[in-house]
Amino acid sequence: MCAHQDGSSDLQTALRNRCTETVVTESLTSGCLTIAGFLSGLMVCLAIYRNVRLRYTIHMYILSYAVIDLVMSLFVMPFTLGALVKGEWISSASACQFQGYAISVLGILTLLTMTLTAIDRYLASTRLASYTTFFKRKYVCVALAVCWLVSFAVPLSFTLNGNSFVFHPGYGVCRAEVKNESYLRASILKIVFVVVPFIVIASCYCRASANLQKAYKNAKRWAQDGRMVNVNSWREEESKTRLFAAFILGTLPFWVPSYACDVVDAFTHEQCLPRSVYLVSTLLVNASCCVKPLITAFMDEDFAMEFKRILKFRKTRKVIDINVEGRKLEEDPKFMPETRKYYCEMKEDDTIIKTEESTV
């Protein structure tokens, strides 16, 4: 049986002196989360690659989230799994620096992506003219690229300032070791890249939700007047806002324990919590990589259908996007309100050709 581990026990000793049952349980949990995170992120990327209808502006945010989850499961989680199996850090000091840097980059990038989607939803519900001008697919891709560059630059400047990443036996990952002379700068960076994005996200979604509720009255009037194009447009904007809000609400609860542990350590100036508390917070962060694809499948019908085709090993279908006049759409249909048809040309495993109509 496992011996009781007091909260004041040395974390490194507690990690090394685990019983067999604990080692197996922790390792299996971490391994399953690593595999699930990789497969779920891969499925999202594969769905976008296979289906042209999943390559519009709004899907670029989903793709960015999926790439973040893939990188997390490939370059961060395996080191944690190895540490839990062996009971100590399994690789070199350089690998520890790499993992700590990757965690910092992905954390900042996730928050910046959430902030960008919140601004997207706010402008879509308040300033439609500006939204259709600045939030085309190419501009969104540029904005996401800037987010990636900023996310790479901030932790790099932190490490070049003389700080390093060290293995934390409680979390099972390498984390930043802040020197006393750099503590103020590190605190400012946390405020800028954690607190400020949360404030912006909350404000934008509150305003967007309020504006959509106001537009609901107009939608009922449009339905009575037979203006279904306007009604469908309102419904689509509402579904997109609900999807990205679900991303945030579904992810943040998995991050809260880790932030709570950081706050406790910051106030006590020591690692005073039990190792199990630190480890659970790490596993919850890893589990968050599996949440967004599940939310996407539940709330987006196109993704759900493509996921089913992937799981059934169905061949890729060629989707040709054509408007009502028979011309192939070259613009992003998100900004083209006319009715369009999708002609889905099936491969050998399909016996009929289906035609689906949709309105944006």
From TrEMBL:
This protein's major location comes to: membrane
The way it spans or sits in the membrane comes to: Multi-pass membrane protein
| Claim: Transmembrane helix is one of the keywords in the record | yes
Subcellular localization, per the record?
Membrane
Gene Ontology molecular function terms on file:
G protein-coupled receptor activity
- Supply the alphabetized keyword list: G-protein coupled receptor, Membrane, Receptor, Transducer, Transmembrane, Transmembrane helix
Residue ranges of the TM segments: 28-49, 61-81, 101-119, 139-158, 188-208
Against InterPro entries, the record matches this protein to:
GPCR_opsins, GPCR_Rhodpsn, GPCR_Rhodpsn_7TM
Q: Which Pfam families did the record assign?
A: 7tm_1 (PF00001)
Q: Which PANTHER family does the entry mention?
A: OPSIN
Instruction: Identify this protein by name.
Output: G-protein coupled receptors family 1 profile domain-containing protein
Organism expressing this protein natively: Desmophyllum pertusum
